[in-house]
Specification:
Tubulin-specific chaperone E; SH3 type barrels; Leucine-rich repeat, LRR (right-handed beta-alpha superhelix); alpha/beta; 26 strands; 15 helices; CAP-Gly_dom_sf
Amino acid sequence: MAAPLPSDALGRRLLCGAEYATVRYVGSVPPTAGIWLGVEWDDPQRGKHDGTYEGTQYFKCRHPRGGSFIRPNKANFGVDFLTAVKDRYGLNNEQDVQHGTENTLVFGKKTVEFVGMDSIAEQQRQVQLNQLVDISVRECAVSHAGQKEEISRTCANIRHINLSKNLISSWETVTAIASQVQNLETLNISENKMKFPSTSTSVSSVFSKLRILALNQTEITWAEVLLCAPGWPVLEELYLTSNNITVLERPDNVLQTLKLLDLSDNQLLDGNQLHLIAHLPRLEQLILRNTGISSIHFPDAGFGCKTKMFPSLKRLAINDNKISQWSSINELDKLPSLWSLQCHNNPFMDTEKNPETLRQLIIAKISQLEVLNKSEILPAERKGAELDYRKIFGNDWLAAGGNWNPEKNKPSEEFLAAHPRYASLCLKYGAPEEGELKGRQPLTLKNQLLTLTIKCPEKPEQKPVEKKLPESMTVQRVKGLLYRLLKIPGSELKLSYESSKLEGKEVELDNDLKPLQFYSIESGDCVLVRW
């Protein structure tokens, strides 16, 4: 027998077979008899129309073919939370019925029944439910909380709940479930298309211990986040991916404990939206993958100064965006605490074809960076990147008014804007020597490759590696490459090389700033690595 149609069916989420939908209409559809449900499918390919039938519009859809009519007996409106838990963890009554024969023992021809076994099984089931701490009922068609206080009586020790991809239609349902879980710390309700409060709600203690909240693909807006946020007083991680969030507002007296915010896959209006969340005092990790931003700017700080925005931000992910100018990378050096950056798949990276050089430029531009695109930056690699940067742009520095004489050293504003760290690199290592800049090789020579064998005499078990390196590559850059290639712990490398022409003699590569060609190294020679 089909379940009766819920009185609050309009707006509810349902399953029809394996397809998810939202009820947009309940009523008759002449000339047919009986009640129909007008539904908007999550997958518009499943639909037939936009809610209009025989010239009459019964409901509206976002997609012109996203709607259908179905009979109520085809709709699954879901189950309560506790039923889903019992089904998922094999603790429902039906299983006890199936194993009812276990309540009897046979002695010869006499059957002896153990009175009270059902109540013992019920007690065991209660004990097992009370032991659950981490519960996942993902895709279990949960739609409502069930009887009042039943969850708190049955599952008193829950701390972590995964309610993703169910049939939850409103934030009130989430609150009704969470209000019965006293020590709730983690809640994932992603992939539930639901209604959120549109006005301020009274602050309750329902989420007083909640630290991690995932609201991915729930169609929540930033304004709705801020309306709910007073109820999340200790929240540390908030995941809001794929919600069509385009504009942000400044959080006043809310989200002040937040350490991680994920806004990935929301097309933000522009990079200036970030200024509105820039004063969250404890925010350490900001994930902005595929948010459509094309630039980053911190206007409160000049070149060489630190911004007051994002004071605690340590980790930033801006992969898969539209950042085309190196000036945005310069701006990241203004962040006072930044040490990890992910920036793959941005147009600015297309300006340099050599990935090694690209990495060096980013490292040289951001002084405190310790991890770039998930790869650690060792001290030797940083030193090499900064020395190379100082040399690569040395001629530009001279042309812009730079000078070895401190009294005459007055590079233009344009140069300083393009290379805000150049002055500090010259202070750190000294200005590039005139010989370094004038002796740069023509491109045809610069691009000549040497085929070298790399050996580690102190680790004979490590097989020699063959690498092709440009003969213009400095010793410092070779060291940076070898750190990553050989996975050597942070210590000072000593390089030398052997050649068949030198009859067993080793030549030490003792000047980090010199290119390989300076040492007359040739293809077929062997580089020896010690530390």
